[in-house]
Design a protein that fits this description.
343 residues; alpha/beta; Rossmann fold; two-stranded parallel ribbon; 39% helix; 18% strand; binds uridine-diphosphate-N-acetylglucosamine
């Protein structure tokens, strides 16, 4: 069933995953309101969204740490039925340096939004969680019942605590229905090249570093370690195409809005189910770009885990969602986007 004219708030809707999700929501007929403080994104993203969907979402530049502004927003938009909450800080290293910034940004704002949703007769809430909650899991692929391991960083801790805060709130709030999506490694850009990932400064993540090296913005990629106990010695991750990931949010929201959920708090892995090594990602890039990538092997990066890839059975069978795109297709979209941004 397509739900028309339901109003959905997307916090962090100008960011990488947020903007792709806004596109998919608008394509499905939802009315979207974005809140973003533009601390790690740009208002220009609105133009990209508009050019893809031929519709401009409402946008309010609000810092969600300002509780009174959050309250005022929900008073003005009392007809919001669902919230997809992306707004958060996500740099692991920075979170170690500035833990309180991360707890305030990622936990404080979550609490303010949940408080507003608890005042409603019915509300649906989707939370951006991460496979980081599993740490180095004992078994691959990782199922949702794998134990949550002690967080390695304040960033990881905010995802674990965020999930617990939502679960505790749902327990005592039957009108609140929530799903936490545990993303594996989101990559790529919209096939139109109108929106994509725009890291500020030196990218910390593999794929933007590769494409920036490919385009000549970085001299060479450092591959962090080739002595891991994996097929070729480099780390294994589950790289999920951002448009596939965005669609998972819409399906999760529809599940809640249609009352199809079996519990008022549920958790799903969102990945492809396939692990790729760093060298395989580089090979994929070289194939789709027809370019040799300049890279060297360096020491391991502290805090990196050896391997993480998802068991996606739960999302496949219960959500009815499955990733559609291959690693090559996702890399191609990332490369097209990088070339467009630099042209
Ligand atoms: C990282 C975070 C994770 C967070 C995610 C958000 C760490 C330890 N983990 O995941 O908590 O949820 O980003 O996007 O920071 N690599 C290189 N060279 C590079 C960059 C990366 O070899 O220049 C390798 C890494 O060692 C890793 C793989 O590429 O094996 C993926 O790295 P990255 O994109 O940073 O993601 P994660 O570390 O999986």
């Amino acid at each position: 069933m397509t739900l028309l004219y339901m109003k959905v708030l997307v916090t962090g809707g100008l960011g990488f995953i947020g903007s792709h999700t806004v596109v998919e929501l608008q394509n499905e007929g939802y009315e979207v309101v974005i809140i973003d403080d533009c601390s790690n994104s740009s208002e220009n993203v609105l133009e990209g969204i508009t050019s893809i969907t031929e519709k401009t979402p409402l946008f309010e530049k609000i810092d969600l740490k300002e509780k009174n502004k959050v309250e005022d927003f929900f008073k003005r938009h009392h007809d919001i039925e669902g919230v997809i909450h992306f707004a958060a800080s996500k740099a692991v290293g920075e979170s170690v340096e500035k833990p309180l910034l991360y707890y305030e940004n990622n936990i404080g704002t979550l609490v303010y939004i949940l408080k507003e949703l608890c005042n409603k007769n019915k509300a649906s809430f989707i939370f951006s969680s991460s496979c980081t909650v599993y740490g180095q899991a004992d078994k691959m692929p990782i199922t949702e019942s794998a134990p949550v391991k002690m967080a390695e960083s304040p960033y990881g801790n905010t995802k674990q605590m965020g999930e617990e805060i939502i679960a505790d709130t749902c327990k005592v709030t039957p009108s609140l229905n929530a799903i936490a999506l545990r993303y594996f490694n989101p990559i790529g850009a919209h096939p139109s090249s109108q929106i994509g990932e725009l890291p500020i400064g030196v990218p910390q993540n593999l794929v933007p570093f590769i494409t920036q090296t490919g385009v000549g913005l970085r001299e060479e990629l450092s591959v962090f370690g080739d002595d891991y106990p994996t097929e070729d010695g480099t780390c294994v991750r589950d790289y999920i195409y951002v448009v596939d990931l965005a669609k998972a949010h819409v399906i999760a929201l529809q599940r809640l809005m249609n009352g199809k959920n079996s519990n008022n708090y549920e958790v799903f892995n969102v990945g492809t189910g396939t692990g790729s090594t760093v060298l395989e990602v580089i090979q994929s890039f070289e194939k789709i770009s027809d370019k040799k990538l300049n890279y060297k092997i360096v020491d391991r990066r502290p805090g990196d885990i050896t391997s993480a890839y998802a068991d996606t059975t739960k999302a496949n069978e219960i959500l009815g969602w499955k990733s559609q795109y291959t690693l090559d297709e996702a890399m191609k979209s990332a490369w097209d986007w990088e070339q467009k941004v630099r042209s």
